[in-house]
Amino acid sequence: MTDRYDVVIAGAGPAGAQCARDLATRGYDVVVLETESEDEFPRQSNKSTAGTFPSMMASFGIPDDVVMQYTDSVVLESPTDHYVKEQPGAVLEFADFKRYLAEDGQDAGAEYYFDSRATAPIMEGGEIVGMTYNGDQEVYGDVMIDATGPAAPIAKKLGVSDLKRENHAIGIEYEFEGIDIDRPGFADLHDAMMLRLDHDIAPGGYSWIFHTGEDTAKVGLCYIQNNGHDRYARDGFAIDDYLDHWLDTDPRFQNATRIEGKQHRGSAHIQMPGQMHTDRFMAIGDTVPTVDPLWGEGINKCMQSGRMAAAAVDSCLKHGDIEPSAENLEVYDTLWHREVAPNMQKRLWMTKLLYLADNERYDEFMQDLRRLDGDTLSKANQGSVSAIAKLFGPSDVSLLARFAKQEFSFGTSF
């Protein structure tokens, strides 16, 4: 082990590991500091539903053997209705996926320091030149990258992180067997990823069933403790209580049992990113944050974030005489807003509107989706104002007024 690298990355999640893969493939000396031990990785950080799409698999060369189930459709549920869209997808075994990224990066030349928790930046002349880890150990590099997610120990100390507590989303998930995947009265969930909008189950958020084969599935929910949650939440209910309530009242779970050791808890921030870089430093993945606000997809977004950071590093270091200053790393921000999360602000507004609607409006929303053509829905999903407008009618005046009042009263926070 050396204490000097071209690039030092804190965190071996999808963003950090992909950034290391790309940099190592380009021939750079890169090291990843990972909190967990090598033997147990990623036991503590196995926190994703791991639903993604073939475009991610192809873009990043992900092998089939980390896929639990390929899916053919996405199902949206409301309390009494549903909508089915043909959309290929993949449900990953997230632990296997993370191990693959780390091992493939190491094969390309990246070093990993396991049992190494990044703790603080090392500063010289007002610029970051390295990181401390495990309290008093040091590692140095030309560029530092924080990919630790909401913890953001380096980004926060540099004043780069702008994560706000009121935008913090929490989630819980279990894997089950014995689920009635094709229950009469519900959509057939064979080879499907289902998202349910129902404030009785996930106030100000959504729940899901991702089919993983035969009678097994990933089942969970998440929400943000914001205005939407406050409006619909039950007194004294925590996130585990809502999941238990769903399991007790949905007949699809009548004979379901939890698979031992398959519990996942996680969190992310749903908001516009603030500053993402400074001299010799970038924040990537959920440190930014990067998760898609509307549908919660994070894997592809984080991987893209890591790739854009690697491109920014390469644009400086490949020439040998270009300093990785804040000005020269600005390309990362440009690529992030263009390639990773275009129309981010519009998608945030769509998300706020969605979670402010009541359960009755969710049932109507399923009818709206069936009424509109696929091209309109695709454009709405991409943030087209004209397409989004087609989802609303005269009955939505009060909903839009609540949204406007919330934005006026609370600014641009989620």
From TrEMBL:
Gene3D superfamilies: FAD/NAD(P)-binding domain (3.50.50.60)
Keywords carried by this UniProt record: Oxidoreductase
Highest taxon in the source lineage: Archaea
Enzyme Commission code: 1.3.7.11
FAD-binding domain segment(s): 5-308
Database matches in Pfam families: FAD_binding_3 (PF01494)
GO molecular function: FAD binding; oxidoreductase activity
Name assigned to this protein: Digeranylgeranylglycerophospholipid reductase
Taxonomic placement: Archaea, Methanobacteriati, Methanobacteriota, Stenosarchaea group, Halobacteria
